[in-house]
Design goal:
Elements lengths: L2 H9 L1 H8 L1 H16 L6 E7 L2 E3 H17 L3 E6 L3 H11 L5 E4 L2 E5 L3 H13 L4 E10 L6 H11 L4 E5 L2 H10 L4 E4 L22 E4 L10 H14 L3 E4 L2 E6 L2 H16 L3 E4 L2 H9 L4 E4 L5 H6 L8 E4 L5 H9 L7 H6 L2 H6 L2
Helix pairs in contact: 1-2, 2-6, 3-5, 4-10, 6-7
InterPro entries: Polysacch_pyruvyl_Trfase
Organism: Bifidobacterium criceti
Pfam families: PS_pyruv_trans
Length: about 350
């Protein structure tokens, strides 16, 4: 472990990050002051870590979280983009009131694969351990059971007096309850399943062909043989095949462009006859756009875990063996494709209660 990381664990992420970003810490007050003076006197929810990077699944999470908070939180919502908390700390210390809430970006970032997200969460919670804090629906996955990131998060979370953690699948729910026994832990769906797609997808798009939305990163579990089976089944389907991904071409997505980037991908899903994917949000995007889909397992169980929320949808099937792909495709292509959003929203009652 590098000395700088050792120092962060020993001294605290908040103090170390301020020293390393002293310019942003000082200048951030004036740069973002208008966001707080404009809502002075109103109850405020701060969404920490909203996505501005190239993972469109995470961009959709931020879009869904903001829509959810605007619907259920009685007050104003201010978002702090990923890795920008240090710019807002002084303002938060001045303007946060006892009945305000801190919310944290959900997704699959509670673990040691993407430690920067845990770094920022711990930084904020160190600063405000007595604020009501809500970690939006997450998958928790530590490759190393003795991860120093896990141990540090346990230390920080233990000092929080009103912390609410939300798991999006049962395995994570169990891990959270074991790792963070002093926090309130609840199980709800992935937040993107709450999305209303009408602001993103025009009505009546023409559907054509099969979209293959398959991972190329560290969470991939498909072997080369698996890929050959998928290609063979796709070729035999007689449909035009398009290769897609849920990653944007640009590395940085400004907040003002996020809606359009998410809309562009959702429209591509809504224009496909069927989707084959091993990406969690590939499956979810298909579900919320009423697109037939066969979902494959990935390396950290989150696809199968979240599938439990929508396993009653006849047009979405989850398989762990690619040799079942042909039969699964025939099933979903002949199924009803109505997405039961109102029923899914009922599953979010614990999260609705937490943000009110």
């Amino acid at each position: 472990m590098k000395l700088t990381k050792r120092a962060k664990f020993a001294i605290g992420f908040s103090r170390i990050n301020k020293l390393g970003n002293i310019g942003k810490y000082i200048k951030g007050y004036d740069a973002h002051l208008d966001e707080f003076t404009a809502v002075r006197g109103r109850r405020t929810c701060i969404l920490v870590g909203s996505a501005t990077y190239d993972n469109i699944g995470d961009l959709a999470i931020s879009e869904a979280e903001l829509a959810f908070l605007h619907r259920y939180f009685d007050g104003t919502v201010i978002e702090i983009p990923t890795m920008a908390f240090v710019e807002y700390e002084r303002l938060l210390r001045k303007y946060l009131r006892a009945d305000d809430i801190l919310c944290f970006q959900g997704g699959g970032n509670m673990g040691d694969m993407y430690p920067g997200f845990e770094f920022e969460r711990c930084e904020a919670l160190e600063c405000f351990p007595r604020m009501k804090s809500v970690i939006m629906p997450q998958t928790m996955h530590y490759v190393d059971a003795d991860s120093p990131w896990l141990r540090y998060s346990q230390k920080v979370y233990r000092n929080c007096t009103d912390l609410h953690l939300f798991a999006r699948e049962r395995t994570t729910e169990g891990l959270m309850k074991e790792a963070y026994p002093t926090a309130d832990v609840s199980l709800v769906p992935d937040i993107v399943l709450s999305m209303d797609v009408t602001p993103y997808v025009p009505h009546g798009l023409t559907r054509n062909g099969m979209a293959l939305v398959l991972r190329q990163d560290a969470e991939r579990s498909l072997t080369q043989d698996d890929w050959e089976v998928i290609r063979h089944v796709a070729d035999r389907s007689g449909m035009a095949v398009t290769y897609m991904d849920t990653m944007a071409e640009e590395k940085f997505i400004p907040l003002e462009r996020r809606h359009d980037v998410v809309a562009g991908l959702l429209q591509r899903f809504a224009s496909a006859q069927v989707v084959v994917t091993d990406r969690l949000h590939g499956m979810i995007f298909a579900a919320i756009t009423g697109t037939p889909c066969v979902a494959l397992a990935n390396s950290n169980r989150k696809v199968g875990g979240v599938y439990e929320w929508i396993k009653d949808l006849p047009y979405v099937q989850y398989i762990e063996d690619v040799h079942e792909l042909g039969d699964a495709l025939r099933t979903v292509l002949h199924a009803d494709t109505a997405y039961p959003r109102d029923r899914i929203l009922e599953e979010f009652q614990p999260l609705i209660a937490a943000v009110r």
